[in-house]
Amino acid sequence: TSNRATDHQIQTLTRFAQQTSNNRITLFPDCDEEGEAGFKDLLWRLAECRIGLQLACSSQILDGKFASRQPEDLSEQDWCEVRHMLNVI
Prior knowledge:
This protein is 49% helix and 9% strand. It is mainly α. It has one domain (7-85). Strands 1-2 form a two-stranded parallel ribbon. β1, α2 and β2 form a beta-alpha-beta unit.
């Protein structure tokens, strides 16, 4: 499905993490059922590449505030809450 990362996308994320962010990345999945299913596969595949991962949002984080939402639909206030939660201010 379109919520699953391609091999090329995995390679790109891995290269980005290795070259620019000390082998770590923060991911923002779609917080609907399909998005989270695809995201679980992505987490596994990136972990196999030895990438340190941080989850920025999910359908359960912050008492379900982001359930059924897409990252591109988050408000500025939502982003402030995510940054605060991740200690990236």
